[in-house]
Specification:
- This protein is α/β, with parallel strands linked by helices.
- Helix content is about 45%, strand content about 15%.
- The protein has a 5-stranded mixed sheet, with helices on both faces. Strands 7-6-8-5-9 form a 5-stranded mixed sheet.
- The longest helix has 26 residues.
- The radius of gyration is 23 Å and the shape is globular.
- The termini are far apart.
- The mean pLDDT is about 90.
Length: about 325
């Protein structure tokens, strides 16, 4: 074999080895199934992880499914059809009081994801009203909500009951899902008088001139809805036991994505790409609202768990051992 042929063989051998290596790395990617409630702005860390290929960086191949309503996501986790669910901690507690266990392992949001909006007629003259007076003004109103028994309805029920209103009864509800256009249309057609939507629906309603923020829950206007375990990465205990390294990798992904998300320049730019239907001004407003509820880390505390339990007050036949409903064991050291 001549020198030229030997050099050519070496070149192709090196190229073949590179192809084999790339193929091997691809094969080594560990699949992970993630279920997320709706397509809300709150899940910004998930979208950034997808855009920036952070799952791939940590050797994961993510299969992300979006479902309408926490009940569906909860069932998906309980049946272990997904490794991770992005669901409200409320669902973790509701499962616990029924004797079923799922576990939160990363805190995505430490306050409710939505404000209470009302139409312009209801908003008129409400600026100086107390919280009690504002809630009592909702008597006879129709309130749009993402889903039945979701966190928005729970929040509304707590406030209504506190001030002597019944839900259902004094306040009626209309379930509209999570798509912003549904709320804009419902206000336009006067199907609803108020709403507790997931952002960016609230900002889109405001910008359309159809409604305004009535209770700014996300800024901390309702004291007991602050510093909670609210929206979390959640898994079945069997998944935690059987796939601990997978769980550690996914919290690494979300930790890095959350750092990017909370950066006012980078995070806002990424979310603008995720929601191209929003104007730059609308995206700026939604981002500013939502940044208030994204904690600096995914760590959770016993005090947060107790505060969340106290305001939700889930009822059921089983006693809840709060330390078993969340863990920080899979967070990056």
């Amino acid at each position: 074999m001549c020198l030229f042929e030997r050099l050519l063989m070496r070149k192709f051998s090196g190229l073949f080895a590179l192809v084999v290596l790339c193929f091997s790395l691809n094969v080594a990617s560990e699949p992970i199934k993630i279920v997320n409630i709706g397509h809300g702005y709150y899940a910004g860390a998930l979208y950034i992880a997808q855009q920036e290929k952070l799952f791939e960086k940590y050797g994961l191949e993510a299969d992300v499914t979006f479902v309408q309503g926490g009940a569906i996501a909860l069932q998906t986790i309980l049946s272990k059809q997904a490794d991770i669910g992005i669901v409200s901690y409320e669902h973790v507690l509701n499962a616990a009081v029924q004797g079923r266990r799922i576990v939160s392992l990363y805190n995505i949001a430490n306050r409710p994801l939505n404000n209470l909006l009302v139409d312009m007629a209801t908003a008129k003259g409400s600026e100086g009203l107390s919280l009690e007076e504002k809630i009592k003004r909702l008597k006879g109103k129709r309130v749009g909500l993402p889903s039945a028994n979701g966190s928005g309805e729970k929040m509304l029920k707590i406030l209504a009951n506190r001030y002597g209103l019944q839900l259902p009864g004094d306040i009626s509800t209309v379930y509209l899902g999570s798509e912003p256009a549904s709320y804009v249309a419902a206000f336009q057609r006067k199907v609803i008088d108020a709403a507790i939507p997931v952002e960016p629906a609230g900002v889109m309603v405001e910008q359309s001139g159809l409604g305004s923020i009535y209770l700014n829950v996300m800024s901390g206007e309702v004291a007991e809805f602050q510093d909670l375990i609210f929206m979390t990465l959640t898994a079945h205990p069997d998944t935690l036991r059987d796939k601990p390294e997978l769980m550690r990798k996914v919290t690494q992904v979300f930790t890095e994505a959350n750092r990017i998300l909370r950066d006012p320049v980078r995070g806002k730019a990424f979310m603008g790409k995720q929601y191209p239907e929003l104007s730059a001004n609308a995206n700026d407003k939604v981002y500013t609202l939502m940044r208030q509820i994204w904690p600096e880390s995914g760590r959770m505390t016993a005090a947060q768990a107790k505060a969340t339990f106290d305001f939700l007050q889930p009822t059921g036949p089983s006693k809840v051992d709060l330390p078993l409903t969340f863990t920080n064991d899979y967070l990056p050291k």
